[in-house]
Amino acid sequence: MNKKLKAQMQNNLDNYAKVLAKLVRNRELAVFAGAGLSAGVGFVDWASLLKPFATELGLDSAKERDNLVKLAQFSVNAKGGNRHHLNQALIEAFPVLAKPGQNHEILAKMPISTYWTTNYDTLIETALRKERKAVDIKWNDSHLPASNARRDAVVYKMHGDIGTPNEAVLTRDDYESYAHKHPGLINALLGDLTVKTFLFVGFSFTDPNLDHVLSEVRQRYQKSTREHYCILRRVSRKDFNTTAEHTYATAKQDLFVKDLQRFNITAIMVTEYAEITEFLGAVDRYSRRDSVFVSGSVADYSPWGQDMVEDFLRAVGELLVKKKKRIVSGLGVGVGNSIVAGAVEQAYTQDHVNLHSLLEVRPFPQRSSVASDRDEIWAVYRFELVRAAGIALFLFGNKAAPAGGSAVSATGMRAEFDLAYQNGLFMVPIGGSGSMAEDLAREVLGNFEKYYPSKDKEVRKILERLNAKKAELKDYLPDIGAMIDRLMDL
User: Fold this and answer.
1) Helix, strand, or coil (residue 398)
2) What residues form DSSP beta bridges with 153?
3) Is the dihedral of CA 219, 224, 230, 235 positive or negative?
4) Cβ atoms within 10 Å of 374's Cβ, excluding its own
């Protein structure tokens, strides 16, 4: 692939990532996970699962990839209608204690509340619970009436769960009776496809039940259906023995991609499976970019005085809300209250304000019976706060000395800086505010390519201005606003 085409494909992926990120922020994105998502953690695919049973029938499962449902049915027929051997194969192929893969983890970190899957494994729900999310799991119609009111996400397992292998949708009989046995799940999927945008990951679109539902949505809404997206790996020459086979597969894939457009499904093409992880990571980063983590504390207000500092912080809160940014804060001493006050005052000047969409404030717990417990709790607390944002703003950063005397640098800000870097946030220390923020500004400017691999010249210029000493703190506001705007374009 020539460099120009590769650059164009990367640009397309970047644009799609931004589109999906906006849907994530607006809580409009749902995920439909197919077998390809789980294959990445070492689970066997359908052809491999059925291989021994195909051999018993004198068939080759690799040659029956388009007829695997029929193959499963043939195997059951050969056993006199008994499917125990398939149930046992499922149990052995999908261990309950398997760990989620990186793609599961990236998806689980994002504020996505609706998941559909044809997979029997527990990887999605495990990844969600790892993120401390309450998960509601539904794999048959009897689960639908009852819901967990405090759930963060619901996972619909369209083909069943490994915990009940006898109910798993496997054979042609299962598919043919699906609409009769699971009308509630079909209606729920119809509803979600109508009001949410779906991202299909690891999905081959050979499932007849989904095909029926997509056709129903298309018939109901004609040319008014929502646009959906799927990630597909482009067929590669290395997958085939001959050029002729590759040419044939490419033509077939192109026709398939065009056919998806009948259902208003846009294919996002990647050249390697590893690019899927990179793409999902980009969606995650872009989705957090409208949230600004504010790190700061102040006990020593010199040389400006407490009034000027508090007025400045209030103005920062107002500025972020004006720019429609969500403020994430641990309510640092001397900083948090003023930031929040400015944000709330600005928010209530706007119509139809939703404070939750503008503020996530979680004051650090100050008392614990055991110091080590407090340190552990604070570490988790910091991580969750930082992880919710895409931009980190560092202000002041001094605190009262434990034994009195002059204020000292805030080590907590340093910890938050390191966490922000590890989680891919844009680092914006206001060095001119002094203390730890000044140290961090010197570090970022001294290692600019580390913190800003894009080497953006405008970002560097703004950081330098934010690091310069000014007589009035309010003089930093224009550059803070300019930096926020610039980072949204990177």
Assistant:
1) strand
2) 135
3) positive
4) 16
Bridge partners, residue 154, by sequence: 114, 136
Task: Quote the pTM value.
Answer: 0.91
| CB-CB neighbours of 344 under 10 Å | 19
Tokens of 85: 């051997």
Least confident of 8-12, 27-31, 388-392: 8-12
Q: What percent of the chain has pLDDT over 70?
A: 96
Q: Tell me: the pLDDT tens digits for 22-53?
A: 999 999 999 999 988 987 777 777 888 899 99
Written as six digits, the tokens of 185 are 């799940």
Distance (Å, rounded) from C-alpha 366 to C-alpha 364?
6
Whether pLDDT at 370 is above 60: no
Q: CA 140 to CA 336: how far, in whole Å?
A: 47
- Rounded CA-CA distance 440/451 in Å is 11
Residues labelled as active-site residues = 159
> Residues in the chain, how many?
490
**DSSP SS3 for 262:** helix
Beta-carbon-side half-sphere exposure of residue 365 (alpha carbons within 13 Å): 14
| Cβ neighbours around 92 below 10 Å, total | 10
The whole-angstrom separation of Cα 394 and Cα 409 is 13
List C-alpha distances in Å: 319 to 60, 193, 292, 333, 344.
65, 37, 12, 20, 11
Average pLDDT, the chain: 91
pLDDT of residue 352: 60
Report how far residue 280's alpha carbon sits from residue 270's, in angstroms, rounded to the nearest whole number.
Answer: 12
Percent of the chain with pLDDT over 90: 74
- CB within 8 Å of 383: residues ≥ 6 apart: 419
Rounded to an integer, what is the distance from CA 455 to the centroid of its chain?
26
| Domains of the chain listed by start with CATH number | 3-43+94-286 (3.40.50.1220), 289-489 (3.40.50.450)
| Torsion (CA) 248, 254, 258, 260 in degrees, nearest 10 | 90
What is the reported pLDDT for 171? 94
